Amino acid sequence: MPTVLRSRPYRMYFFSHEPDEPPHVHVDRDNLSAKFWIRHVALARNFGFSAHVLRRIRALIEEHQAHFLEVWNGHIGTQR
Asked: Residue 68: is it exposed, middle or buried by C-beta count within 10 angstroms (0-12/13-18/19+)?
């Protein structure tokens, strides 16, 4: 489960056992969690983050989108 970015209180990472899904990143802070699709940045699921925090996280993902896709393709592969 490699961490691809730490920004402020957020940890963004991939699970190695999810290669059949489109590129996505998991985001955790304390006991809160969310999952975002990377190619067309969109929220996949949310466990506890407020709407305004999700907008902040989405902006971070958009800012680092190219990096996330590069790491995804290097770690998971380019199957999807």
From this structure: buried
